[in-house]
Amino acid sequence: MITEKGYSNEYWKKHLECLQTRLQELENSVSRILEINQFIPEKDKYLDVSNSCRFLGIGRNTIYALMREGKISYTVLGRQRRILISELKKYAKSNFIQSKKSIL
Fold it and tell me: Is the backbone of residue 16 left (phi > 0), alpha (psi -120 to 50) or beta?
């Protein structure tokens, strides 16, 4: 049987099976990546500069200044900088100011 576009039902079944196979391969790849990622402790994971900015809630210029001043350690990979999550937490903790108790 020919559909309105001139393709047979067999054609569509074949392409649907191909897409299902490719989707299954993609799902398998994602699950392998997630499995590998679970073995890396969070403190040892790296973030790029933009995600580090989101993590701390600061701008790009500020984080570059902190790296330049040596307040945040980083690793250079090619032309990009990566920052350990543990370094970001350490910086945030060092600048934490405890709120004062209310007099009420």
Answer: alpha
Structure tokens at 43: 């403190």
pLDDT tens, N- to C-terminus, the chain (104 residues): 556 667 788 888 888 999 999 999 999 999 888 877 676 666 678 999 999 999 999 999 999 999 999 999 999 989 999 999 999 999 998 887 777 777 76
Q: Is 61 exposed, middle or buried (0-12, 13-18, 19+ CB in 10 A)?
A: exposed
Instruction: Could you list the beta-strand ranges (E) of the chain.
Output: 46-48, 75-77, 80-84
Instruction: Residue 85: give the domain boundaries.
Output: 42-93
pTM beyond 0.85: no
**What is the number of alpha carbons within 13 Å of residue 10 lying toward its C-beta?**
1
Residues 29 and 58 in one domain: no
